[in-house]
Amino acid sequence: MKTVTVSLGDRSYPIHIEAGLLPRAAERLAPLSRGRRMAIVTDENVRGHLATLQASLEAAGVASEAIVLPPGEKTKSWAMLERVCDRLLELGVERSDHVIALGGGVIGDLVGFACSIIKRGCRFVQIPTTLLAQVDSSVGGKTAINTAAGKNLIGAFHQPAMVLIDPDVLDSLPARQVRAGYAEVVKYGLIDDFAFFEWCEANGPALLAGDPAARVHAIAHSVAAKARIVAADEHETNGIRALLNLGHTFGHALEAEAGFSDRLLHGEGVAAGCALAFRYSMRKGLCERQDAERVAAHFRAIGLPDGLAAAGIDAPSATLVEHMKHDKKMAAGTLPFLLARGIGQTYLDKTVDLADVTAFLDGEPR
Ligand SMILES: NC(=O)c1ccc[n+]([C@@H]2O[C@H](COP(=O)([O-])OP(=O)(O)OC[C@H]3O[C@@H](n4cnc5c(N)ncnc54)[C@H](O)[C@@H]3O)[C@@H](O)[C@H]2O)c1
Ligand SMILES: [Zn+2]
């Protein structure tokens, strides 16, 4: 068992990582149940793991009730928020109860937000079942739903009480989803950890093939990096947490152009976005060509997009930059960009001129 702690004073919490943890989850959950029934929220594609979790709880004498939602990004909606909140209230959830979010980032974000507002806040536990959720979204307390105006625009910071990660649940996840989540793993290396990027180059293929040791190492290393960043800047106010957005400004523009659909998964947008951020940094004379090429080559080797063409995006540059202008991070007419002086040397630049970004994108192959 590997345990990483997110240190946030009285809101600190452990992240437990171990293969085979889900069938034994009740060891960690029963002490939180206070002898009461536990509510579990999940989606239809995670039913198999729900059965494992409920069996574990039942064997420990803990009753549970499942709320099973439709899968997909559309579930992060006002309608589903209402459905989850109404059902949790019907079940009599109290402030000291722990609701269990079993699923990918969609379930984690929706349930986390529901728990931030139910009775002005109840507790919740994250049991992430996608690689993306295991290395990123289940940790750090960002919760949200999407609205007509855009993604993640309604939400709250609400930290979970515990995160339980069983890499074995990834066995049932489609390979494309595993690859997309892997982009966020590579991101931690690109941000400030060159040695970890080298580890990814050497071990990424084994990780994607399901190698148990590679999975545990990648997950534990990623959540430790995220835990450090979140502890240093919980509410994204001093520029440290913003580093996690590497590749996301370009990536979101591509995702928006693809209509936030299965045409381009979030992690695929992030991979292409990181490659673009490095090439843009190269164009600005910040990093060496070989660094930008090395980043792109790793994504290509893994089967992730390394730019617009591979992401299937042929929109004009002006359209893509228009998408960027709707970014939440846009402030007083400027958009902070994550740029790189090299692999593992990312920094936040608030002086980027969007006309220059447009010119850069004009030079990118479609
Ligand atoms: N809160 C944060 O800090 C944060 C960070 C990054 C991303 N996000 C959010 O996370 C969401 C994306 O998360 P995601 O990529 O996990 O998507 P997701 O939750 O939609 O899961 C992807 C797909 O895999 C299925 N699935 C989940 N676990 C499975 C399993 N073990 N076996 C088989 N199928 C399984 C789901 O039903 C879904 O169809 C986005 O909404 C994004 O905004 C949040
Ligand atoms: Zn992301």
TrEMBL record:
The keyword Ribosomal protein does not apply. Transmembrane segments: none annotated. One of its GO terms (biological process) is chorismate biosynthetic process. NAD(+) binds at residues 105-109, 129-130, 142, 151. Pathway: Metabolic intermediate biosynthesis; chorismate biosynthesis; chorismate from D-erythrose 4-phosphate and phosphoenolpyruvate: step 2/7. GO terms for molecular function: 3-dehydroquinate synthase activity; metal ion binding; nucleotide binding. Residues 67-179 form the 3-dehydroquinate synthase N-terminal domain. Its EC number is 4.2.3.4. Its main location: cytoplasm. It is found in: Cytoplasm. Residues 181-330 form the 3-dehydroquinate synthase C-terminal domain. Belongs to the sugar phosphate cyclases superfamily. Dehydroquinate synthase family. This is 3-dehydroquinate synthase. It comes from Sphingomonas paucimobilis NBRC 13935.
